[in-house]
Amino acid sequence: MNLPVSEVKAAPSATARTTFAALWRPALVQAFVKLDPRQLKRAPVMLVVELTAIFTTLLCLLPSDVPTGVSVQIAVWLWFTVLFANFAEALAEGRGKARADSLKAGSQGLNARRRMASGEFEVVPASDLRKGDVVRVDAGEMIPGDGEVIEGIAAVNEAAITGESAPVIRESGGDRSAVTGNTRLVSDWLLVQITSNPGESTLDRMIALVEGAKRQKTPNEVALDILLIGLTLIFLVVVVTLQPFAHFAGGSIPMVFLVALLVTLIPTTIGGLLSAIGIAGMDRLVRLNVIARSGRAVEAAGDVHVLLLDKTGTITFGNRRCSAVHAAPGITARELGEGALLASLADDTAEGKSIVDYLRQLHDFTPPDAAHLVPVAFSAETRLSGVDFGAQRYRKGAVDSVLAFVGMQRLDLPAALAREVDRIAQSGGTPLLVCVDKRLLGVIHLKDVVKPGIRERFAELRKLGIRTVMVTGDNPLTAAAIAAEAGVDDVLAEATPEKKLARIRQEQNDGRLVAMCGDGANDAPALAQADVGMAMNDGTQAAREAANMVDLDSDPTKLLDVVQVGKELLVTRGALTTFSIANDVAKYFAILPALFAAIYPQLGVLNLMQLASPQSAIVSAIVFNALIIVVLIPLALRGVRVQAASAAHLLRRNLLIYGLGGLLVPFVGIKLIDLALNALHLV
Fold first, then answer.
1. Is 310 assigned a catalytic role?
2. Is 249 annotated as a binding residue?
3. Does domain 321-447 have CATH number 3.40.1110.10?
């Protein structure tokens, strides 16, 4: 029974770019909204700055030894510091929210055709669907939620989610049965069993991820928050003790100066940019069309030591094709050709079809009627496929499997055929033996093509200290040849789910973080065990549930980009933390001599920057403290580019650039601001 289903237009491409010009106005509004202390409690350092700004504003209304104009300037720049820290966070959130809004538009007003117990269908809002419900989707309609195809085959346009306009085939059974909500059928029909409740779908997770306010802090961010809070408390104690110390020496320090000192000494730079760095890192991941279930997975990607990658589809194109056939001694080329053709007629894989195409070009065969053939499907246990034709059994498959079928050992292989098998394997090809009953006919040479540029990418990962492991079901010789051509560091050949799981546990027991990608149900245990498990969106539901990341483009090589984003996130945070702490040194030389100039004139020798007056020194430091956040916003959003180098080299580079820069830039910046303030007679 077909009922009309109302729906909205498909959402714009999720890869639509957002520009600064479109984002700065709403981000500026949000900067003021985020002044709410309940929101700033997530950024404790900036909460302290806001409280000091409020306190300084009140001090401007009270009599003081400090000119009112100077106090007002300090208060204004403190508010400026908080607002621009909020602006950086809002700008980072805005880049994702623009995408989230387009995704939300695609799901509003969507209805679904749900199957009732009677077998009839009823139209209900898509938001009413629950896990386990079965819906029917016809050509032109939107799939109302994440699910598994239980009946039918159809082409699906996933552009609303992935941005790719080319439709993909989804069908029941196998590893291509998962469908994503808010995608559109372009042909045929499907019966889909919903696999998520409202708020739990891929679309919902993507919207929640890109809306930065809902993003959970990662362990690294929490640890950095603890460090920043600790430093803030230490400097608070230091500042509080300065006034009693000044009284003991027979002097006094204006309260507004003490407030300024506190703000400039606490790590406001990293405190103001920390949230923006994290949100921008997650945004870069979303722009790769990868959904992370947690921020921890992204950070773990940055610390990965070992990368497990499937050979087929990741390292190679996966389209192995028949390139040659070699007959066994005593077998004619025609006998081998007929046997290999018969053994491949029922094989619907790309490899099987390539064998049939290759042999039909060589020989003029007329295959028997399909009604007289009994197909034998490939199975993981036998690793054989073929047909039974009358009393004869034609088979092709892995060398050891075919030998077992005919009752032979490796040593029993004819020498010429054994040499050909070894040559194919050593060249990176896959040898398939062909037999009829107990008689070997020859070997088929399948070639797998390594993707261009993959060797260079592995070399970059190696320089970053990441070891790559190729996972394949091929025999060790074939696997070794492909591994040598691709440039991977290690190989796991003849891999089974148990072998993958054991390898990951072994690496983790040795103290290493492991990442892997997969799409099949047999990958689920390993994906769940890995520190970073990335499932393909077109894979099985079991794989997607086991992984902590889902790649909407179903591109296994994306895992390399995820590792890069994770490293950029960690390095950016570390670089700006180094800069923030290092630039406190210059502020000491700017403010401390100014505070105690009247009490201890000898401290004037520490006025290395030759600042004009105590008031000028204080205001210059406060202005620099605010402006440096503005200057660093683009770096926080873009991230520090990670070069292919060892961890020690990266540490030295960060210390040299951001540590030394954090020491020198404030000296120059504060002096220039001092000159400008005095030239304009603002102090």
1. yes
2. no
3. yes
